[in-house]
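Hi all, posting the design record for the shared folder.

TITLE: backbone redesign
STEP: 1 of 1
STRUCTURE INPUT:
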């Protein structure tokens, strides 16, 4: 039960950190998550006494994250950056471990033997592209540097793991063979890549085979895709390959063959992408919350005298790594494709972009507690140093990136986007209204289109109520006129008036009481409709007895259709840019009422689908026309088209 509560607390901390980041996005999300973890550690519950199980952590958290990074990476980009991958993930990783390890051994020979120094160096070598993204959300990172950081983080994790294993073996046995080390590195590194590529290819083939023979198998292929990294990591580790490189390789294979799958099932592809986005965001958040949660535990096991020394050592290690990364880029040992005048800046960006995160944390906790029958005395200190290096790299990046890089700026605000979307949808609704055919189908379509707008704004209750009162008054006048013309009876006129007085009450308020009120009114409408059916039948019999033709009297549906038409004409005459939101909400209420009272009418599903396609074409055409006329910028038009396409896909799926 404690494990379930721990997972709940971790997810709650991630959600709270995300909410705070939405409110104040100037501080990177990873810092909020670390702080949430630190606060979580202070809770009076044993659920926060978390024990890290490295193998489980690598399999359940790191493997899915690396697989998702691999399948989101373009093979074309990877093929163009093979030299950079080898330079940073193999060459730089080896050089960094040797230099940092040798420096630690020479500076503190009594504390750090060569194997122990190399172990610490291997742990702090891997970088985390997700952490970099969280630091550069609001700034414009040059594409060449960003791409280099992404491809580096895909493969240098495995280098760190393999080098740590070699250092740990040397520390345990007291001996080290260079030939064996090279063979072991090559076997684990390249064996993991080949193993993952083979299994990834087999799974893609299986997935395509299933999808070619069956139409809707999302419940099968999506779980297979989600379980893929866990299974491949476990099998690769059992074969003594790099599990991390195997899942990265399998992910890259998925990205290579993704084009073959793209049009086989749009529904499956969208669901898969959504699920992986949720999984990736949650797991990344959990990693940083765990970092914050574990820091107080590690510090609590460290004496105050040693704490200051470890902090100083952590800063020194970070600075050495920073200088090494800068020199590697400045001396063009990695090709950033930077112009000569920007090489210095890009070199510093690459150096600062070496932010540490998930792998560094997991490697630190993967150190054994017992070595050669004795307790590993330096384990707690290495974990604390690694955590402090992670924190230092994040804090320095959070400060430096906004200073060195320009802020991202859209040429439109959120308000402008919402206003443009409202105008776009309103244009489509007006175009549909101009055609008097297919009224029942169009009523449903226009109601659905209106939902595109109502999700983005809050209405002005004063303006809404004023227009609603005028609309109700118009309905009452029409009902009175129909009674005078003897198109409805006096008793019917009274019933209609009661319904009108209550039909759109509280439409603009999305509160719980509004929901209750709506339910009550719908029950009343159902009772009234049932009673009116009986009264109309009785009324028709009375008319036949008096030899009057019953067809001269309007039916229940006809009265409400007439009321809706007249109210919509009235709303057309008073609509302005200032009250379009409130009028749209009122139109939705009338459309929903019309749909309710006409629910017995048959609608043509095929015609509805055609109208949906036509409506979204109207929206895209309007955006294109406004772009041509200079009313919308290119970025605003792109955002609108993306939103319209997403809404269209959701509408289509809802009708399946």
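Okay, here is what came back for every position:
SEQUENCE:
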């Amino acid at each position: 039960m404690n494990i379930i509560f721990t997972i709940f607390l971790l997810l709650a901390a991630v959600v709270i950190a995300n909410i705070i980041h939405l409110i104040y996005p100037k501080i990177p999300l990873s810092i909020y998550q670390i702080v949430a973890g630190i606060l979580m550690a202070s809770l009076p519950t044993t659920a926060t006494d978390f024990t890290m199980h490295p193998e489980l952590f690598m399999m359940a958290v790191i493997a899915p994250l690396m697989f998702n990074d691999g399948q989101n990476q373009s093979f074309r980009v990877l093929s163009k950056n093979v030299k950079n991958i080898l330079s940073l993930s193999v060459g730089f990783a080896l050089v960094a471990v040797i230099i940092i390890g040798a420096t630690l051994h020479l500076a503190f020979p009594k504390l750090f033997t060569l194997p122990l120094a190399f172990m610490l160096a291997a742990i702090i070598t891997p970088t985390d592209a997700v952490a970099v993204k969280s630091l550069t959300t609001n700034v414009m990172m040059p594409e060449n540097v960003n791409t280099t950081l992404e491809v580096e983080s895909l493969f240098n994790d495995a280098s760190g793991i393999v080098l740590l294993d070699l250092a740990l073996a040397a520390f345990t046995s007291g001996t080290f063979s260079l030939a064996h080390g090279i063979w072991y590195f090559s076997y684990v590194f390249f064996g993991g890549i080949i193993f993952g590529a083979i299994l990834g290819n087999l799974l893609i083939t299986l997935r395509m085979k299933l999808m070619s023979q069956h139409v809707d198998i999302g419940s099968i292929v999506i779980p297979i895709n989600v379980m893929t990294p866990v299974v491949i990591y476990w099998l690769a580790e059992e074969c003594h390959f790099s599990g991390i490189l195997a899942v990265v390789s399998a992910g890259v294979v998925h990205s290579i063959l993704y084009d073959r799958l793209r049009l086989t099932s749009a529904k499956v592809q969208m669901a898969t992408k959504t699920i992986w986005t949720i999984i990736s965001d949650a797991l990344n958040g959990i990693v940083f919350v765990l970092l914050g949660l574990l820091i107080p535990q590690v510090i609590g096991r460290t004496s105050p005298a040693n704490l200051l020394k470890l902090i100083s050592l952590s800063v020194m290690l970070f600075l050495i790594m920073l200088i090494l990364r800068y020199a590697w880029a400045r001396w063009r040992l990695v090709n950033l494709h930077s112009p000569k005048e920007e090489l210095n800046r890009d070199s510093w960006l690459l150096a600062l972009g070496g932010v540490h995160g998930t792998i560094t944390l997991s490697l630190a906790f993967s150190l054994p507690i017992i070595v050669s029958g004795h307790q590993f005395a330096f384990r707690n200190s290495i974990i604390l140093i690694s955590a402090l290096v992670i924190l230092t790299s994040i804090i320095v990046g959070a400060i430096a990136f906004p200073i060195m890089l320009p802020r991202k700026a859209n040429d439109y605000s959120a308000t402008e986007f919402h206003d443009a979307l409202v105008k776009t949808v309103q244009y489509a609704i007006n175009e549909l209204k101009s055609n008097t055919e297919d009224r029942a189908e169009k009523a449903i379509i226009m109601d659905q289109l209106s939902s595109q707008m109502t999700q983005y704004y809050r209405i002005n209750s004063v303006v809404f109520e004023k227009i609603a009162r005028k609309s109700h008054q118009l309905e009452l006048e029409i009902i009175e006129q129909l009674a005078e013309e003897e198109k409805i009876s006096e008793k019917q006129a009274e019933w209609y008036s009661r319904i009108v007085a209550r039909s759109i009450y509280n439409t603009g308020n999305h509160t719980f009481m509004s929901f209750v009120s709506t339910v009550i009114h719908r029950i009343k409408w159902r009772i009234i409709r049932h009673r009116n059916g009986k009264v109309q039948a009785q009324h028709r019999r009375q008319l036949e007895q008096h030899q009057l033709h019953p067809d001269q009297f309007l039916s229940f549906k006809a009265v409400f259709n007439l009321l809706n038409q007249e109210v919509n004409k009235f709303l057309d005459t008073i609509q302005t840019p200032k009250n379009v939101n409130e009028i749209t909400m009122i139109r939705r209420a009338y459309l929903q009422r019309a749909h309710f009272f006409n629910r017995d009418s048959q609608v043509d599903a095929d015609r509805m689908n055609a109208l949906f396609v036509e409506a979204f074409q109207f929206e895209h055409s309007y955006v294109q026309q406004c772009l041509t006329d200079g009313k919308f910028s290119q970025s605003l038009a792109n955002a609108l088209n993306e939103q319209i396409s997403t809404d269209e896909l959701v509408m289509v799926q809802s009708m399946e």
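COMMENT: The two ends are 41 Å apart (CA to CA).
Let me know if anyone wants the other runs.
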